[in-house]
Request: fold
Amino acid sequence: MPKLLGAFGSPFVRKAFVALTEKGITFEHEQVIPFGAPASYRKISPLGKIPAYQDGDKTLADSSVIIAYLERTHPQPALYPSDAYDYARALWFEEYGDGGLAPIIGGKIFFPKVIAPRFFKQEPNLAAIQKVVDEELPPMFDYLEGELGNNEYLVGNKFSVADIGVATQFVNFMLAGYSVDAKRWPKLVAYLNRVHSRPSFKAAIDKEKVAFAR
Ligand SMILES: N[C@@H](CCC(=O)N[C@@H](CS)C(=O)NCC(=O)O)C(=O)O
Reply:
């Protein structure tokens, strides 16, 4: 059986988990924590990051790479649009999540508020985190609100890797104890509720809420 390696709490592990679940692939999930992972893990993930994926004797690292592979091995349901421009736009939103939202929500909010106290015994600077929430995120939320318009999903009005890449970051925002203001960003909030209530996301979120409640 294929195996996903990487701990819940990581938005990137969640991306791969959601894609595997959306595609109906049966897989094992091994909770590897990247900090202090055994040297052998680097054979599968040379940068030492999570997630990694094992499919028989084939191994892969990086959530985007894993999802691209799954699309080829299990084309249905498709997670990438077929139209060329929509395909590129979906990759763009995946990157907007990975390279735009993650360094802020993951790096400046979730990590200091949730991970550092748990694993590194470091107290969070709550005022500094609140400043990030108040100043750095609103322009990003404005952008997503505008891109959504009246559509249910970000690209081609169909669930795709774009939605996986963006919505996963907001799970970390929620796990850190924050929520998006529905009065200011109603479309974004409705969209996040829609995506997060899909069985694939819900399966991850339900387990993560329990893991991070402790
Ligand atoms: N581009 C990678 C990013 C993965 C990533 O940064 N994972 C973090 C956890 S959220 C990690 O493993 N950090 C440990 C490290 O950088 O050593 C992907 O999409 O999988």
